[in-house]
Automatic annotation (TrEMBL):
Gene3D superfamilies: Ribonuclease Z/Hydroxyacylglutathione hydrolase-like, Winged helix-like DNA-binding domain superfamily/Winged helix DNA-binding domain. This is Metallo-beta-lactamase superfamily protein. It comes from the Bacteria. It comes from Bradyrhizobium cosmicum. Residues 116-134 have a biased composition (Basic and acidic residues). Transmembrane segments: none annotated. Pfam families: Lactamase_B, WHD_BLACT. Residues 42-218 form the Metallo-beta-lactamase domain. The lineage of its organism: Bacteria, Pseudomonadati, Pseudomonadota, Alphaproteobacteria, Hyphomicrobiales. CDD domains: metallo-hydrolase-like_MBL-fold.
Length: 307
């Protein structure tokens, strides 16, 4: 396969909720039973190492999932808990696991938006954020945390959220990429929680790294990760081109663009698609390609700059 070929999304993920599966030596995963149009079959938590282990992304506020994770590490010591980002399907179970294990919690920091909210923004798209989460230890890009037989490097990947981190295990050429890259679907980037400008820069950062096996927050693992990331970059640029193609026909609003671009979309995802278009428009307005009156917001109208 050349880099110019499309990489198809892989929706084949037969893992059942609550079952522990070893996917590589030193890497196990457990699926939470929280399927939805946004989470696919559910959130995947990872166990790194053997004996003295780390857990990545404890998942939503779900007692059964916490019990499944604790059962998977019975007889072992959980020394570290890592959280990729603070959406409610990833971080709220942290408290349960910390209380049960005494592990230290590592993450970029508490939840925050990618930019200040505009005065004209009425709707709050951040209802999915976990504002109660705070790590014991804040980690920044390039920080390395070592455990018994494993070593994870924090990779700043803002975009899906401002505080999103991936955790790379360079010696194993493995990267736990959270929701920044998923094999089953594109990630949602919804301003002001997310930022397309940051998201694209983060894709470039991942594409330049050597880890080639990605483990995502939802869905199956992604082999040849950097090539898949280059596919995602092309996909986003194609989406931008579709927006510009529609705007070339005249000034319009976001719902009109969604209908023109997302043919046959699941109606439950229409709102999310609108925020994804807004994320692209924010980027285009910042670059001076597209114009709007006032701030770039979900209810605004947009036109080509100079039109």
């Amino acid at each position: 396969m050349s880099d110019n070929d499309d990489v198809p999304f892989n929706r084949n993920f037969p893992l059942k909720a609550g079952i522990v599966e070893e996917v590589r030596p030193g890497v196990r995963r457990v699926l939470c039973n929280n399927p939805s149009p946004f989470t696919f079959t559910g959130t995947v938590s990872y166990i790194v190492g053997t004996g003295n282990v780390a857990i990545i992304d404890p998942g939503p506020d779900d007692e059964a999932h916490a019990a499944a994770l604790l059962d998977a590490v019975r007889g072992e010591t959980v020394s570290h808990i890592f959280v990729t980002h603070t959406h409610r399907d990833h971080s709220p179970n942290t408290g349960r696991l910390k209380q049960a294990t005494g592990a230290t919690v590592y993450a970029e920091g508490p939840h925050r938006a990618s930019r200040p909210r505009f005065e004209s923004e009425k709707h709050n798209p951040e209802s999915g954020s976990d504002r109660d989460f705070a790590p014991d230890v804040k980690v920044a890009h390039g920080d390395v945390v070592e455990g018994d037989g494993w070593r994870l490097e924090a990779v700043a990947t803002p975009g899906h959220t401002a505080n999103h981190l991936a955790f790379a295990w360079p010696e194993r050429k493995v990267n736990f990429v959270g929701d920044h890259v998923m094999g089953w679907s594109t990630s949602i980037v919804a301003p002001p929680d997310g930022s397309m400008i940051d998201y694209m820069e983060s894709l470039d950062r991942l594409a330049g790294r050597e880890e080639d096996l990605y483990f995502s927050g939802h869905g199956p693992e992604i082999p040849d990760g950097p090539r898949f990331v280059r596919f995602l970059i092309r996909h986003r640029k194609a989406r931008e081109a579709s927006i510009l193609h529609r705007l070339a026909k005249g000034e319009t609003d976001i719902p009109t663009m969604v209908r023109a671009i997302y043919i046959g979309i699941d109606p439950r995802l229409t709102t999310a698609a609108g925020y994804s278009v807004l994320a692209h428009l924010e980027d285009l307005v910042a670059r001076g390609v597209v114009a709007t009156d006032g701030d770039p917001v979900i209810g605004g109208t947009y036109r080509m700059a100079g039109a």
